[in-house]
Amino acid sequence: MKTSRIPGFYKLSIIERLRLVRDFAELTDEDLAMLLNTGSLQLSLADRMIENVIGVFHLPFAVATNFLINERDYLVPMVIEEPSVVAAASNAAKMVREGGGFKASTTPPVMIGQIQLVDVKDPHEAKEVILGEKEHILEIANSKDPILVKLGGGAKDIEVRIIDSMKGSMVITHLLVDVRDAMGANAVNTMAEAVAPYIEKITGGRVYLRIISNLAVKRLARAECVVPKEVLGGEDVVDGILYAYAFAAADPYRAATHNKGIMNGVIAVALATGNDTRALEAGAHAYASLSGRYLPLSVWEKTEKGDLRGYLEMPMAVGIVGGATRSNPLARIALKILGVKTASELAQVMVSVGLANNLAALRALATEGIQRGHMKLHARNIAIAAGATGRLIDLVAERMVEEGVIRIDRAKEILNELKSRQEVT
Ligand code: MEV
């Protein structure tokens, strides 16, 4: 049985870790070479991904361990510059495992395309006309993507809204498109552009914008977990986390940071798998404000037994086909490590990781604070910046943490001291 529960993974060397991941995900020698080669995104490929390329920018690629989601074990690839996020996700996943793991689900992968119609005499009449032509509008949209339709996706329905704006009433048609395993922006935008002339023709109005909405309320991912109080450190910790949640629910200044903790996990997986992180951020924060107030995306409560239950629901517009998910070789390897078969399964993993990072942050904040854990990693970064290499990185970092002074000048002093001692011995 494959398990993602790998105690002491963080203490292994990169090669030892890689061997374990290779066995878990059946990576090929070529995959391993790609991961070990920091130049694996070829300049020529990068030059085809965006414009005006002058180089390739690298970030650390890690895996979080311990994730059990819907009874299945996952090693979760994460790409991020911030220390502690991967460790926090792994620790939280270990605690959640004790309570049976994450239960995750998704709605069908339906994205919204918006078509903005203005200059109509009677918006209500225009709305009725558009709704009356629904079947033909869907036909035009679907004629643009027969492959998606063959896969069971395609434009499925429309909604029409009348909104008041500073430039008067507008009639906004929502094209609801099941995008299957794609993120969907290309398919949806193509369809929205295709139906626009017909909407102008039947209403006599003028269409301006034809574009996907990143507020993907039809494409939600949900995760739930229960963590036994003993695993968290007692009922006091549960209460601390509930106070943290109450704070976020009452105060947008705190809710923004609470949600940032969730996005730490979500975005790290999105980056690793080549997904559009801006679309996810936009969707998440708009969803958090949908009630008219900016709220925490997750909910935390106490069970009858005094354990902690967490729930996270958010839009999750991610794909496993198209875009950088396939063109970036490392994103392809990340998807292989995950072993997800559909975009919905990837969304379930990502929402679980978001909940895990949220749990880890709230637990740390409600107890010892986050700085102790952060400082250890921060100290290593400062030691490296001061010129430490190999074993000296940990020695310099440990000394700075012990002293409670984590500064580059002190790192240099300790480094010189250690080096001169090495020279003497
Ligand atoms: C830091 O990257 C994330 C936290 O600020 C999240 C939170 O405060 O809940 C620790």
Report on this model:
- With 425 residues, the chain is of the alpha+beta class.
- The chain has three domains: 9-102 and 223-361, 3-hydroxy-3-methylglutaryl-coenzyme A Reductase, Chain A, domain 2 (Alpha-Beta Complex), CATH 3.90.770; 110-213, Alpha-Beta Plaits (2-Layer Sandwich), CATH 3.30.70.420; 373-424, Helicase, Ruva Protein, domain 3.
- Helices cover 52% and strands 19% of the residues.
- The chain has 18 helices and ten strands.
- The strands form three sheets. It has a four-stranded antiparallel beta sheet. The chain has a four-stranded antiparallel beta sheet with strand order 5-6-4-7. It has a two-stranded antiparallel sheet with strand order 1-2.
- A hairpin with a 2-residue loop joins strand 1 and strand 2 (72-79).
- Helix 16 (371-385) packs across helix 17.
- The longest helix has 24 residues, at 343-366.
- It is globular, with a radius of gyration of 25 Å.
- Bound molecules: (R)-mevalonate.
- Residues 82, 257-258, 260-261, 264, 361-362, 365, 370 line the site of (R)-mevalonate (MEV).
